[in-house]
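Revision sheet: structure tokens.
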Amino acid sequence: MLSKVFEKRKDNLSAYNSSIYDDHIVKVLPYYTQYHAQIISLVESYKPGNINWLDTGCGTGTLASMVFGRRDDVKFTLCDPSEKMLAEAEKKLKGHDITFINKASHEFEFDSEFDVITAVQCHHYYQPDEREEAVRNCCKALKESGVFVTFENIRMSTDESDAIALNRWVKFLEDHGNSKEEIQMQLDRRGVETFPITIEEHINLLRKCGFKSVDLLWTSYLQAGLWAVK
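Predicted:
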């Protein structure tokens, strides 16, 4: 059964409505634009030619917009459970040939269709068993030797190190103009609306779901990016 958090907001699951998401997310997630830069660099090294690319939890289409700024040989399918996020993405990406689908990863029925699948800041809304279903669906949707890249909020390996990392993140939030109320809201969501897991748990989950190789791509503060090959 899907976590109730997926039914909580009509707009989207993030802390901010779709219309203001882009302006606020960079004040909440350190080095947010680096997520996309790292993904694009990796994908260019993996497949320099035509790419069939699924971006799940696409939000307002920021990743696809950055990709189209560099190349035009990508066929994108953008998926998101929020109709309003998809509407923002359609406005941002007007003029490009893109398939938009109002679904989340646990609802996929794709089979061996895509060269690349990305999931940026979306799977941490799943409880553990739900997350496994979402990741398995992504693996199934990839072609053989296709690449999956995920960036998510994470937990540290111990409660002690997690507390230190949280303090560091709070300092970032303060330095980027977030109010005390906004900071507390972000902290309160952790473990209630978002369910971060450790890097080790990420690696084990990806292997369990059928990926033959799993590696760490990038990490900072309380976020990490991993990539896996089917």
